[in-house]
Amino acid sequence: MASQTLQSVPAEPSPARHEQSPEDVARRDAEGQAYFDKVMAEDSRIEPRDWMPPAYRKTLLRQISQHAHSEIIGMQPEANWISRAPSLKRKAILMAKVQDEAGHGLYLYSAAETLGQPRDAMMQDLMDGKAKYSSIFNYPARTWADMGAIGWMVDGAAIANQVPLCRASFGPYGRAMVRVCKEESFHQRQGFEILLELSNGTAEQKQMAQDAVNRWYAPALMMFGPPDDDSPNSKQSMAWNIKRFSNDELRNRFVGMMMEQVKVLGLTLPDKDIRFNEETKKWEHGPLDWDEFHEVLAGRGPCNAQRLERRRQAHDDGAWVREAAAAYAGKQLAKQSAKQKEYAA
Amino acid sequence: MSTPETAAPASADVQADPHGGHGDISVGVSGAGASGDGTASATRITPGNALRPEDIALAVSRGTAKPDEDVAELALRLGDDALILAQRLGHWISRAPELEEDVALGNIALDQLGHARSFLSYAGGLDGRSEDDLAYFRGEQEFRSVELFEQPNGDFAVTIARQFVVSYYQFELYRRLAASTDATLAGIAAKAVKEVDYHRDHSTQWVLRLALGTDESRQRMIRAFKVIWPYVDELFRDDELTGRLSAAGAAPLPSSLREDFDRLTGEVLAEAELDVPQVPAARGGGREGKHSEHLGYILAEMQVLAREHPGASW
Predict the structure, then answer these.
(1) pLDDT tens sequence across B295-306
(2) How many helices (H) and strands (E) are present in chain A, helices listed first?
């Protein structure tokens, strides 16, 4: 539990902030900050109704909504293979997986909404190109083996990133991540299983698996974000107990796990420089093309335009459906209140 | 024909993931033996004692469940209907009007795919073909789906109109099939009917919302029912096969479902202030392998990868 002496200060002041004297506002902010600092020191949790520094709110909103957008855009490369999955069992698993991603998007948008931003507005920012999502989803899923590589490497990297987020200082985010991580772990296993099956299959299947691993390796490693000396926001996020480990630390740990698992697969990673450094007790990997990372991030990846257009198209095609649902709900509500008035009279 | 005891899964088979440890990035395997083991299948993790496609395949391979020729043909018909619908609905995932509908339509697609896998696994028991042999290596004329299931998704209203008809039809069918003298058919239907009941609820809610929402949605809903209704009659046509199955107590006559279907859909349409569309019925013929023009495209896409690698395992 957080402080016994300091009290949480409600996020929404009463009376409203602009009706209070500057002295009252300042005192309130100071009390809120004191409680917040205490929560951080105790590694406890901030909840949506607690006062929080505006920058903390902004950082979380950006991070959680980006995470939600990544889930939604991330559905596309895999949805691309649902209709062509080569067995009915694989089709069922893939459908369930892509559906899980829609579910993750839903929890994450809900967590972000507790910070004061409605889902519609976040979606709009995504479609307007104002909000980012994980760059990895701007690469194409060319073959069936990509379903394996995405599950094993991309979801694997996501888990390595997200398991520490289960302890994030913002309650709704941490709790959403617990469920997300459980499902991601399952996703990673199914990806591994796809690759294992291909690797033990025909020569063509094994080649397909190796090709997919080769293509997804570097983008997966870059999912952890830029190197520590080029990651300006990391330090503050770590001070706020949102981020627990640095980008490079997580990336190195991930490389080590991939190295173990790739042996079981009977495949190789396309990086001759991977080694375990006995002195630092850390895994190391070869150089990554950060220019490509920044290019894709800036919108110049293979599928950026396609992914956003598909999202816009689905949103536009569904506009009349959402309007109908809202109109129907409004009419039902009006009917109910008319009935209640009738009873009252 | 099988007995309920042999078709039902042994309770020891119904184990959750034996590896445990979710939330880490271990792949839960020691050595290369993760695959090829029936218990490693992700789709086996189903709560309760529900009958799963893998259980049916196992019972068929052990010879404890074997359909006769008529039952196998019926299982093929129903399996094909569900498979083609799952293929259609799967297209909505990542394209639905709301995230909640990506999830809902995905769920319905998964349910249908599960029913398809069960029926096809059982149908294959006649001559030793697997669900995948039947799904991926039959040509158009060998499929037994009716035209309704092959109809394109259209806009959301067309998908909902198709879903509405399908779910009320399947509910009446599976409800009766659950009492089949064939224990495996009965087992599949008993599981399916519970799921299809939710599909009825989903489509009913949307018919009401769209019909009574805005002017545009109402016009689209009216049009959608006109698009779909020509394919309703084919669902309820009897033929020699259904005559024999009905006489044996293995399956209801399709025509016997019509009265309840009309009454229950009629109640919803009345609440939605819609009329039953007065449109001529299409001739149909899917049960004899005479399909709509759509089926060829559906199969071309569905089968392409499997056929590029005949004999491969996935």
Answers:
(1) 999 999 999 999
(2) 13, 2
